[in-house]
Amino acid sequence: MGKFLTVLLLACAMGGGALMYYQQVYAYYYEITPNGDTDVQITSLITDTPEPVLYDDFRAIDADSSPIRYRACFTTSMSLPMLTETYVLDEGAVPLTAPKWFDCFDAKEIGAAIEAGSALAFLGTENVEYGIDRMVAIHDDGRGWAWDQINRCGEIVFDGQPAPDDCPPAPEGY
Question: Using 50, 70 and 90 to split pLDDT, how confident is the model at 21?
Answer without folding.
Answer: confident
